[in-house]
Amino acid sequence: MAPRPMPLRALVLLAFAAFASSINLRMCDPLLPIIAGDFSTSVGAASAIVVGFAVGYGLLQLVFGPVGDRFGKYLVTALCSIATGVATAWAASATTLDGLIVARFVAGAAAAGPIPLAFAWIGDVVPFERRQAVLARFLTAQISGIVLGQAVGGLLGDLYGWRAVFLIVGGCHVLAGLALLGELRLNPTAQPPLSSRRLRMGDVAASMLDLLRRPWVRVMLVSVGIEGFAFYGAFAYIGADLHHRMGVGLGTVGALMAAFGAGAIVYSLSARWLLERLGERGLALGGGLLLCLGYLSLAVAPSVATVPILMVVLGLGFYMIHNTLQSNATQMAPEARGLGVSLFALALFLGQSLGVALAAPVVDGLGAPAIYVVAAVILPAIAIWFRVQLAIRPVN
């Protein structure tokens, strides 16, 4: 039987939704000093808005995965995008830090749908042998969002304040959601055939427990959880560190952090070539080693001159290992792909939340370089471990 053709326009619009979500994920990093000053608190305390978003994002994975499997990943992605936009705009009206944390939690909860469900949708329509290359290209949208979120977040925040940034990003989410709904109306083939089985929480819980009993699923969840803990626990503080330790203006901080996206784009454009020459195991190991190099160098960087190169190294290294994890996540439970990818995203963002939260008092007391060193130790270790697991993984 001929393979099902991939609806290109539907994929592009999903990429737009992922672009908006990626902006939202990282836009607060360069804004932390501004928000801390606005609410008369420390950067460590203000980082609770990053934790709140990530916790909301992670917890709701357990809802949107099975809901997407039952009612359609494309439709649920559209509705989540609109809800995220409304919640993000609402955050702009916060008058206290606690209120902002709550609003960011709600925005993170609504944002839990688009990116994981997009990956699961690609898993439904793209054969596994082509999937890593397609996912790498799809990552270009996410990477562009990260670049814009960090660069424009810092620049616009410096010029107009963090509230204006939230309003603009909220509008992007709403526009993406409306475009997805329009695509469903014009092109029903964007929605693969749905199961007629009713959605029952007992069945969802049973499916989740079944997945967690599988050794390979546990390997994937542990790997991405530790990756998120170590990488994002350090990454969230780079902007504030550049501002306080090196005296860099917030607009420049955003531009410097955007160099991370340049490294990620290098990966997305060369993913097929790298995969052919290094294989999955080589990509995982190489990514871990580059992350070690990048964070250690950042910890001892004497001036801002080396920072753009180090951010490129971090971007390339992160996506070498993370895209390998993502590709395997789409195949670890083909019969419940939405739930499987959602568990993967849950592990990533709970790991991220724990990493950012535990790093906060260390950053306030010792400075960000101490956290960079911790990340430089953990990330290559998990890369080596995952490389070994790839050699003995089961074949679906």
How does this model look, in words?
The protein is mostly helical and about 400 residues long. The protein has a single domain (about 10-190, about 205-390), classed as MFS general substrate transporter like domains (Growth Hormone, Chain: A, Up-down Bundle). It has 18 helices and no strands. It is globular.
The amount of helix comes to over 70%
The number of helices is: 18
CATH architecture: Up-down Bundle
Which structural class do the helices and strands define? mainly alpha
Overall pLDDT level? 83
Q: How many structurally independent domains?
A: 1
How is the biggest beta sheet arranged?
A: none
Which consecutive residue ranges, at least 5 long each, have pLDDT under 50? none
CATH superfamily, by name, is: MFS general substrate transporter like domains
CATH class: Mainly Alpha
Strand fraction equals under 5%
Tags for this entry?
396 residues, mainly alpha, Growth Hormone, Chain: A
Describe the SSE topology:
Blueprint: H1 8-26, H2 32-38, H3 43-46, H4 48-59, H5 61-71, H6 73-91, H7 97-110, H8 114-125, H9 128-160, H10 162-186, H11 201-212, H12 215-235, H13 238-245, H14 250-257, H15 259-300, H16 307-329, H17 337-366, H18 368-392
Helix pairs in contact: 1-6, 1-8, 1-9, 1-10, 4-7, 4-17, 5-6, 5-17, 6-7, 6-8, 6-10, 8-17, 9-10, 9-14, 9-15, 9-16, 12-16, 12-17, 12-18, 13-14, 15-16, 15-18, 17-18
Short description:
The chain has helices spanning 8-26, 32-38, 43-46, 48-59, 61-71, 73-91, 97-110, 114-125, 128-160, 162-186, 201-212, 215-235, 238-245, 250-257, 259-300, 307-329, 337-366, 368-392.
